[in-house]
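Anyone else keep sequences and structure tokens together like this?

Example one:
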Amino acid sequence: MNDDTTPRVSRRRLLTWSGTAGALTVAAMVTDACSTPAPPGTTTTTTTIPSTTTTTVVKELDANGLLLLPGFTSRIVARASEEVAGTGHTYRWYPDGAATFPDPVVPGGWYLAVNHEAWPGGVTSIRFAPDGSIVGAGSICDGTTYNCAGGATPWGTWLTCEEYDAGRVWECDPTGAAPAVVHDAMGRFSHEAAAVAADGRVYLTEDKWGGGFYRFTPATPGDLSAGTLEIATGPGPVGAVTWVEVPDPSASATPTRLQVPSTIGFSGGEGIDTSGADVWFTTKYDKRVWHYRTDTSTVDLRYQGGSGVLDGLDNLLVDEASQVLFIAEDDGNQELVVIRPDNSVEAVVQVPDQPDSEITGPCFSPDGQRVYFSSQRAPVGPSALAVGVTYEVTGPWDQYLGR
């Protein structure tokens, strides 16, 4: 039954499950489709597309099946349905959004928190020693559903977002020392990603056709248990934004995106990240990168994908030092693509021969020298079960990004 408390199955998930070696049989109504009209009460507009240029560099196929820029190497960190090497922990299916965190006990060590967009879902945390060796792994969030993307907080926790109509945001301790905590005040909707900006607010995307762009202002800075959830309104999507409080964040009778007149409807909100007053987020159906400024409350179109290197736009990461955006492709050529400040683009990693997968969870190690990402439905094991692999790419990132 498809009501506001039942997880809904997207066309992508339905095709994935039905084609995964007969492992799952699903009968559900497909709710996400590009041809779906925008819901009533939302606004859309046509916008001018910024000019772009493309850089092409010959890549080399490595032993792990990745096409990499010269000088870069990869390793496999974890394969779904298999043990994370030497830890005794079995890695769950469909790895998605991810972030790293410094180890508070071991200087130079770090944790990698990874979502799993499955039913049930959850979050895995993998612990690394200062030399990069894996020394532990375990679950830091259980009993959740379709954990898609999320966001790291400045206070060192991971926000994991449930992507279904009544989905919630859970706050996780990467070390696993404290249990995951759900934050109902942040709303019940098809959460995609979250990012804490310099103004102390959490900005959130909604993975629905006509989905909202939200911000959450905590009642107490750094404490997400209570606060005010607002949605962006206006003639938009480009131009001035007026923030209006969502009357019923629990969506007990009406979806949050339909509760406020003049809500700006975005075409399938995806990844989001922040730097200073800047907030960038992607939308998948129109293949765009948006730029919101917290100091002026305005939205501009940063980049139009869909041709050339960058096609399916999903998870987003900003490298603070260089202000380069990393975009993970869902569809397209299964690439991890950079957008430089001048809007030139280049694919830095490609996962060939996996047309039914998607690239997810790009993030740097705390020292900025390693990039982690996953191919969510990469084949695993002798049966090539399409359940996902997480990779690490090491190389001259400082030189490449001009840090």
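And example two:
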Amino acid sequence: MDADLLDSILITSIDHEGRGIGHQNDKTLFIDNALINETVRFKVLKKKKNILFARSEEIIKASSQRVTPICTSYGVCGGCSMQHFEPSSQLAYKQRAFEETLRHVGNVRPDVILSPISGPSHSYRHKARFRVKFVEKKQKVLIGFNEKQSHFLTDMTACSVIPSKISNLLGPLQLLFGQLSIKDQIPQIEYASNQTRHILVIRILKELSDTDIRTLQLFQEANDIEFWTQTKGYETIQPILEVMSREIIYSNTEFGLDFFFQPTSFTQINPFINLILIRRAMALLQPKKGEVIFDFFSGLGNFTLPIATFGSKVLGIEGDSYLVESGIKNASKNNLDKNVNFKKLDLFNTKKDDLKLLGKADKWLIDPPRDGALNLINLISDDIQPKKIVYISCNPATLARDAHILVTEKGYRLSKAGILNMFPHTSHVESIALFEINE
């Protein structure tokens, strides 16, 4: 037996990354692909003092919650970590992890726990970034995600969490890229879709030849996709042919809105859950005509514009110049520019005076990246304090940290909170919380 392949171990709990936890002698083991109450054999991947990181190699006694993964590359590919969980068990795990994080990290508890929201568990991901690598020894181009705990690229020809149209093309794309003159000068592809147009932005370090462009053109015509290229920043992104439309739109039919975006711009990867998230955010925020509402980390207006449809005056605040410009364009295209404005502001380094210059809003919506909104939360004072804050989070730990400050220092109560399964088969937890001033 391999020296690192150990005897069987009982899994007694699950950590917040979806790994099974077991104990052997004085060591704690975190084991991929292992569920509570399972007995597994495992292989150690990494050692750190009394902590071992491992992968299960054999399931001796399986949990009733175990299912067959939907991807053949699961266990090797680092893109997903929970495909061995039955989908409803994934949701229950995330709900429990969310509540425990609020309690243990933030020492807060919502008055009301909202029902968890879930949607499709496959073909849901309409935005992804794939690594590309030409392996000279194999004379083959690989396209995919990194292997688990490794810098190696997974040799994959399908991916069940992206639309089947693109999943089915991963193998053919490998062969296609192998024909290009710059096959060793392509580090990544960024995929973006509005569910109608499927766009693959090829990051190139060297100019495509005329033959390369013709090869890509024939492939895109045969498969009803679009190839774009990027050499440096946003401004270099362009379709391979001038005749291709540069305007991409995703629609929110519930609010009658069209959003113009670039394929590498930040948009939610799961359009199905995004629509429900917006609906829930509006239900919690309850925007009213004449109210002033600030949307922090506004992006291209995903929440800003729906708020404005209620007649509220909305200011979207964002640190990315390109997204600010996109937000202004989207407000104008939807005839909401009388109600909506956008402003560039670095919300991680904003000072109190910067915030005061914005004026006082009745309500705030906050949708920060994983780092949370600590700087912004710390700046709240009586003269700018909104009566209601809706906080959307992709990291329960930073939400819990910020919630602790809002509740213990800023005079709010955590009225409602709940999760949405925006990223099925991964340990990522998307959540939404409502904070209201204590009366």
